[in-house]
Amino acid sequence: MPQTLVIKIGTSSLTNPSTGYLALSTIAALVETLSQLRQLGHSVILVSSGAVGVGCARLGMTERPRTIALKQAVAAVGQGRLMRVYDDFFTSLQQPIAQVLLTRTDLVQRSRYLNAYGTFQELLRLGVIPIVNENDTVAVDELKFGDNDTLSALVASLVEADWLFLLTDVDRLYSADPRSNPDAQPISLVQSIEQLESLQVQVGDRGSRWGTGGMVTKITAARIATGAGVRTVITEGRSPQNLLKIVQGEPIGTHFEPQPQAASARKRWIAHGLLPAGKLYLDDGAVKVICQSGKSLLAAGIVEVEGEFQSQDAVQLCDRNGREIARGLVNYTSIELQRIRGCRSEAIPSILGYAAPETVVHRDNLVLSGQPSPNSPSLRVMVEEPDLPL
Predict the structure, then answer these.
(1) What Pfam families does this protein map onto (predicted)?
(2) pLDDT value at position 383?
């Protein structure tokens, strides 16, 4: 049965870790595998890192760029070279490809989000393999995806994929880093992200010398993708031929089971496509009603307003301790909410002097976050300070 597959490969798999030069044998194996998947009738999207790493190698740089301007310049050098290599390999197998460069703005604005969806659908209908990367050359820091693991999960959610494969430098998720801890235990199946907390899994947030990620970003990506109903697999990037075996049912890598009831496309856009412009802190009663019943948020339940935002901006809904419980589109500006927070709905028109919506965030525009507490000690990070992103 034809399926839609999103494959993300990281810089650590695409390049030689000591030199930063492209690992051509890995790329050749990846291209051959993806072409075979296309021949089997599957729709395939590749999310590829490596532009900055390739640019560094091309320019003879021995250190990662540390300023945004230099990083963007190096990405401009590397992106063209990376696509040239992909095009040469795919052309030899008669497989057409397309370059798709995205910024966070493409997913923040609803019209551009829908346009991106339409573009992907047409490319897949034409039998093309889209090769996706963040548009590092123009993306500003506050509107960046942060890493391609997150980007791949958002793309998988956008196109309603069946599979998301995160190819990395280890063969699966372990209870600790197997490269430094001989007692690390492999994890083959994760039924929910909360399971990792109960297992006391330690995940590092440091990527390779040339990469940006680590296992933390892959766990985040798995949370996004599985919430959209996408089965997610972490497996070794140096063995891309395993993708065929996994699709055929072999238990390779770590599988994250999709949630049985995926959120609608609109709610996935609210939850992951938008960047919150502010926070609303709620009393215990409002938190209980939203978390247990999924009801709309009323002004009476708001105890504090943080940030400056306009009506229809995205906001985080938090409990008194600052733990995010939900996100949603707000019906009021921050200035209006400062005046009506804690008030009953029937009193709002007299306070503001004009008719206003009964709800602050309507339940149709509200998505439960399902995030663990930021103070939870169970999901520990082995490296205190992450690498600067490439």
Answers:
(1) AA_kinase, PUA
(2) 26
